Amino acid sequence: MDYKKHGDTYIVRLGVGDEICASMTALAEKEKIALAEVSGIGAVNAFTVGVYDTAKKKYYANEFSGAYEIVSLSGNITQKDGKPYLHLHFSAGNAAGAVFGGHLNSAVISATAEIFVRTLCGAVGRRFDEGIGLNLLDFEK
What we know:
By secondary structure, the chain is mainly beta.
């Protein structure tokens, strides 16, 4: 992972074998990013995305491998228990034009990824909501 900061934005380049979530967490820890929005494009050869079933309060993971282009990477970085908390959604398409997506669990770069991380002033926390079963934004923390 290489990156450079311009104003309030980190321009990030990931290389072959880099994993998106691990790289974004490492960046947030190193640069002490408490609140940011994330967007990106690139190419991956393996990824896992999940879909949350609100009735069962359970994520269902779908794993994909092969040649895929990132159609969309978007989300945010907040804080939970004093550590960076990523909430990223992801979609990627293959050569046949099929696109798959959901909540990003992991994605391994096959060529490169170009990710913009725009920092915001302040911090927003997360708290677990028993009723929904998810870590929701917490404006008190």
